[in-house]
Design goal:
This protein is mostly helical. Helices cover 52% and strands 6% of the residues.
């Protein structure tokens, strides 16, 4: 008889491995389970077999080949999105990562980021760089205002002032500072890859 346990600890552990840059496939291979099992643990299951939970909890970052890149380009992309009013919580929902992870990169605390996070932020940046967030509700207006205020306070420039050819080179710094911008319209909502896979 299969013993089932709460999925929470395994889900939290897989989430931390994902944030470190591990793919579903890499985690599954290291644990000796299927990639869909890992996906179900993250998105669907409330309970999981004790054997699967133990296998996932045994996976360490050192067991995985975690591809990482310098955080410079990701940081400036995120800061320019803040200058347009896209706060960390909104970007985190779009890329499918925790808000704290986004905040660490925005603040400059993270020296490197996983290739997966870098790619997802670049995709959101490409979609939103010249767009404002929706501000239809008091909460949306407050979030956008707080993001723009933070960008203004720290002198973070909008995307138009970034040199995309140099953006991902270590040591690159934008020459411009913050300037108010209204953009070319309202950014559409983006679905994170996890949400897309679950739908």
């Amino acid at each position: 008889m299969t013993t089932l346990v709460d999925v929470g600890p395994a889900r939290d552990h897989v989430s931390s491995l994902r944030e470190a840059g591990a793919s579903w496939q890499a985690i599954a291979a290291a644990a000796g389970v299927g990639a869909m099992t890992v996906f179900d643990v993250m998105n669907r299951s409330r309970r999981v077999s004790q054997a699967t939970a133990a296998a996932l909890l045994d996976v360490r970052e050192s067991d995985l080949e975690l591809a990482r890149v310098g955080a410079n380009g990701t940081m400036y992309r995120l800061r320019s999105l803040q200058a347009m009013g896209h706060g960390s919580a909104r970007v985190a929902r779009a890329v499918g990562y925790h808000e704290q992870t986004i905040q660490r990169v925005v603040s400059g605390e993270a020296a490197t980021v996983g290739v997966d996070l870098h790619r997802r932020v670049a995709a959101v940046f490409d979609a939103w760089w010249d767009k404002r967030p929706p501000e239809l509700t008091p909460a949306e207006r407050a979030a956008a205002s707080a993001a723009r205020h933070r960008a203004a306070e720290h002198g973070w420039c909008q995307a138009a002032a970034l040199d995309e050819e140099l953006l991902d080179i270590p040591g690159y710094k934008p020459r411009a500072g913050y300037r108010p911008a209204i953009g070319t319209g309202i950014a559409r909502e983006l679905q994170s890859e996890q949400e897309a896979e679950a739908s």
